[in-house]
Write a structure and sequence with these properties.
The longest helix is centred in the last third of the chain and has 22 residues. The chain has a five-stranded mixed beta sheet with strand order 7-8-1-9-10. The protein contains twelve helices and ten strands.
């Protein structure tokens, strides 16, 4: 419980190009290069007799795989997560292609969260590479430092960043604001290795010029509908009348859109929640037919179900069910 009268400070921490950055620790010779994560075992780097490594590239890639993530150098070519590797190959044919290694990514996820907990223990886990942190009641968070009225909480956020770097060798970006909604946006503003602190006074200059889909919770369909009504930026949304939004989107959604545009969000940092789903995806080399390939599909689904059930048991012994599904990139036709 926050102290009465204390200014609320919530941080959102997002690891920078997390999977790719973990791979660069393993292969430091790739620093600064365009690297794409999403290959299979056949794309494992090969150690040469002279001690150097030979890396696969996208140039000769053929298959149905998708990009899991990419370095910032690869993103400069237009490559992004969830893009098909064939399309990525057309944009950046000389980009290095590495296989995914989820065991290693989970290990570094645990490490960076432990590093944060040493400084700020009130953490909401939002996935393998991002968390929310309540900084409100930490010693010094409400204090000014020199001419910086928010210097105390800024110093805490910097301490978190430094501790993550020390324990993992990885950089992260942190947004610090009065709530989760604004902090999620702020953590993206100065990537990579950013630290952005905003108050509600910063809304007109830093938040309102951004596209409306920058608000977490407004997806492609919502963004398209808002655009059809002449609302393209968060500022456009903030200037829209609340009653007008309710008339077009309904009471609940209209009210939320109005509050989100004005940076209003009272959600607490939740330190524990039951996992609601677990997933596993595989990209097949060819389309599988539901009837002709039924024996192979049966083996795959059985293996997935056993893996998922084991994970569910470890995560929550009371879990009673587990579902296996294929993703769009690993479909059966």
């Amino acid at each position: 419980m926050s102290s009465p009268g204390a200014r609320r400070w919530i941080a959102h921490l997002d690891m920078d190009a997390f999977y790719a950055s973990v791979e660069l620790l393993r292969y430091p010779e790739l620093q600064g290069q365009a690297v794409v994560i999403g290959g299979g075992r056949r794309h494992q780097p090969e150690l040469q007799p002279d001690g150097t490594r030979r890396f696969a590239t996208l140039r000769h890639y053929a298959g149905r795989g998708v990009v899991t993530t990419a370095t910032y150098a690869a993103r400069d070519h237009g490559v992004h997560s969830a893009m098909g590797l064939m399309k990525a190959a057309a944009l950046a044919p000389d980009a290095v292609l590495l296989p995914v290694d989820f065991d290693q990514y989970r290990r570094y996820s645990r490490l960076f969260k432990s590093a944060v907990a040493e400084v700020a223990p009130v953490i909401e886990d939002r996935g393998i590479d991002e968390i929310y942190i309540d900084l409100t009641d930490l010693p010094g968070a409400q204090e000014a430092v020199g001419h910086d009225p928010h210097g105390g909480v800024r110093a805490i956020a910097l301490d978190i960043k430094n501790n993550v770097k020390r324990m993992t060798g990885l950089s992260c970006s942190i947004g610090v604001t009065p709530n989760k909604l604004l902090s999620k946006i702020a953590s993206e503003l100065d990537k990579p290795d950013g630290l952005t602190l905003l108050t509600h006074d910063d809304l007109p200059t830093r938040i309102w010029p951004m596209r409306v889909r920058s608000i977490n919770g407004i997806g492609p369909k919502g963004g398209a509908r808002l655009a059809s009504l002449g609302i393209h930026t968060i500022g456009d949304l903030a200037r829209a009348d609340r009653a007008w939004l309710v008339a077009h989107f309904g009471r609940s959604q209209g009210q939320w859109l109005h509050e989100a545009a004005h940076g209003i969000d009272d959600r607490p940092v939740v330190t524990y929640s039951e996992p609601v789903s677990m997933s596993r995806e595989t990209t097949f080399d060819r389309d599988l037919h539901a009837r002709r390939d039924r024996p192979e599909l049966t083996r795959i689904f059985s293996r997935w179900r056993a893996t998922c059930s084991a994970r569910a048991t470890r995560a929550a012994p009371s879990a009673s069910s587990c579902a296996s599904t294929t993703s769009g990139s690993s479909r059966a036709t």
